[in-house]
Amino acid sequence: MIERHIHCVQTEDPGLEEPAATRARLRHLFPPGAARRLTQLGFLMGSVLDPVKPAEEDGLVYASSYGESRALHEYLASFPMASPTLFQTSIHPSAVQQVLVARQQPVREFFPFGGHAQIVAHAAQAALWSPSPRSILCGGEERTLPPGNSRTASSIGFAFALALSAVAGGSVGSLRLLETADAGGELTLPDFFTALRDRRALDQTAAPGVRLVLAWR
Amino acid sequence: MSNAADSPPVRIEAADCRTPFGDARATCAALRAGRRALALQPVLGAAGGDAVPLAPLPGRALDETAPPAWLPCLDGLVATLPEAPWGDARHPVFVTSSNFGVGSLYAFAHDHDPAHLEFCTPFALVEGLRRRFGWGGNVALLSHACVSAHLGLLLASRALRAGPAERALVFTFDFISPFVTGGFHALKILNPELPAPYAVRPTGSIGLGDGAAFAVLGKAGAGFSLSAQTLHNEMHHFTANRADGTGFAASLEPVADAARGRRLWLKGHGTGTLEAGRLEAEALARLFPGAPLVSWKGGLGHTLGSCGLVELAIALAAMRGGEAPGTVGSAPPCFVDAVATEPFATSAYDGVVLASNAFGGAHATCLLTHD
Question: B141 — contact with chain A (CB < 8 Å)?
């Protein structure tokens, strides 16, 4: 069994909010030059990471099933004159990179996960295996409705960030991973996000052999 | 966390790769002979464009088919895996890639064939691969551009040390498409020049190639171990490094500490860009004085998220075969004297430092040693 205590939890629940509205709501968090280039997911991740304040020695773990889906589709639309900016922005972990580059904040370890049914279990493992005194588990999606291929994007936007440490004092909850004989199991990002937003406990098999327990004080 | 490399050592039970030259042994032999898989081809495949250095698998077109034409390459690689119930609780799989099936997304955007959709997202593609290969559901996906494979190696090592894993499989691939060739061309670093890593010349250039590889990490090894692993993310600029080279040093210094007293050679990232190549070469020469430095991307092209493990498999083949390929495509003058442009015997060395870099100033380094 491995366990870390939750010292800060942040969520963003914009639901069906359009990118322009997200930008107007959250641009105050960034320098003007940086805010101009941020994606919707970049703004959302910036909002949840701002109070957590990632530091160089933190173990940073990011999970997103679809990543920069809006930039991906805008980049595809730019061909045959491919946009270099959208190409850079479309890479999977770009949302967190946008935030940290804007803040000029290096981090030693950064583990960006894709995946779907077991993504939460695997990202949580990485956060709990980190040798850093503090690890940050964050994730999210931006809302995109690409015509004709809704299977390649999320229909809702959300983001979350948890600051985790081995210190129990002052914590608001805990995240534990236990071994289980159950060979199945899944926990998707939207379901994990909802539990965090609602401060709802979880105790379920989240991947083969991995039981995830989220508890609140 | 202290600024120390991840240790203790983790044994490598097996590793191999696929490049346009074949498996790791064939690729190592081709590079030792100074061969280039790169050839000038239209940057946008069937849509044309400038001729740039690309190295897809033999006979594979840049434009994606449905199903992707590279699937048989992965089938062949998987057929060489050691037997294990991969994907169960004690045999986790870490699949890493920069692009996964994004070539299928590009193809869908152009021909609207819905058959591409099952390969477009990382999780849909890997779910299909998982079923194809008969793996269980314990398959993690990591994507951090060109250091992706290193992340898989580090997490697999931690799964063995801290988790319930008995053996762990790291499986990586990247197959080029107009999506990625068009992007690097737009950044102007994929141009008509063939890459010459670490060479002093007026214009930098890279090539891009197909690559896939695996490593099985476990408690029983086959003569080699990952003795130290580090990461560092500058977060200074999306496509540029800090001009003082401190990002390179932050990743390399812990490995240099862990390697003290060893006789080493160095396999750098060395894509062929000028500024990053100079910063990397200078940092390596300062921290590992006298150690010969090579890059193989002048022969294979940059295999993107797979490069860290593709090149590790080639390094293993070089250590086992007794001779390492030189820096194919480069000739003096180079940024540092340590750049080896010709093959050299590995018998005088007991380890190799393997480094990769990526967008966002991401760095990853590992130390491969004899047991």
Answer: yes
The chain A residue lying nearest B47, using CA atoms, is: A80
Which of B140, B184, B187 is closest, CB to CB, to A115?
Answer: B140
What's the rounded mean pLDDT across residues B331-352? 97
The closest of A10, A1, A53 to A175, measured between CA atoms, is: A1
Q: So what's the pLDDT on residue B163?
A: 72
pLDDT at site B371: 86
Sort out which chain A residues have CB atoms less than 8 A from B170's CB and list them. none
Nearest by CB to A108, which of B183, B231, B361? B231
The distance of Cα B292 from the centroid of its chain, to the nearest Å, equals: 19
Q: Which of A119, A149, A208 sits opposite B136 (nearest CB)?
A: A208
Above 0.90 for ipTM, yes or no? yes
What gap in Å lies between CA A62 and CA A40, rounded to an integer?
A: 16
Is residue B233 less than 8 Å (CB to CB) from chain A? Answer: yes
Greatest Cα pair distance, chain B, in angstroms, is: 58
Residues of chain A contacting residue B237, judged by C-beta atoms under 8 Å apart: 101
A82 vs B47: CB contact, 8 Å cut-off?
A: no
Taking residue B320's Cβ as centre, other Cβ atoms within 10 Å add up to: 14
Paired tokens of B75: 């089938």
Can you tell me the distance from the alpha carbon of A79 to that of B219, in angstroms, rounded to the nearest whole number?
Answer: 48
CA-based nearest residue in chain B for residue A100: B235
d(CA A152, CA B121): 6
The CA-based dihedral angle spanning residues B139, B141, B146, B147, taken in that order and rounded to the nearest 10 degrees: -70
Evaluate if residue B243 carries a pLDDT over 80.
yes
User: pLDDT under 70 in chain A at which residues?
Assistant: 147-150
Separation of alpha carbons A73 and A77, rounded Å:
6
Please tell me which residue of chain A has the smallest CA distance to B49: A80
Q: Quote the distance between the C-alpha of residue B355 and its chain's center.
A: 9
Q: What is the pLDDT of residues B277-330, one digit of tens each?
A: 999 999 999 999 999 999 999 999 999 999 999 999 999 999 999 999 999 999
Do A110 and B87 lie within an 8 Å CB cutoff? Answer: no
CB spacing of A133 vs B1 below 8 angstroms: yes
**Domain residue spans in chain B?**
1-371
The CATH number for A27's domain is 3.40.47.10
Query: Looking up tokens 């894509």, which residue turns up?
Result: B271
For residue B156, give the chain A residue with the closest CA.
A126
B1-371, CATH topology level: Peroxisomal Thiolase; Chain A, domain 1 (3.40.47)
- CB-based contact (8 Å) between B164 and chain A? yes
Owning domain of residue A120: 2-216
d(CA A20, CA B284): 45
The C-alpha atoms of residue B171 and residue B211 are separated, in whole angstroms, by 11
What's the domain count of chain A? 1
Q: Do B137 and A119 touch (CB under 8 A)?
A: no
- The whole-number average pLDDT for the span B101-123 is 94
Q: How far apart are CA A27 and CA A13, in angstroms?
A: 16
In angstroms, the separation between the Cα of residue A32 and the nearest Cα of chain B is: 16
* Nearest CA-CA distance, residue A188 and chain B, Å: 12
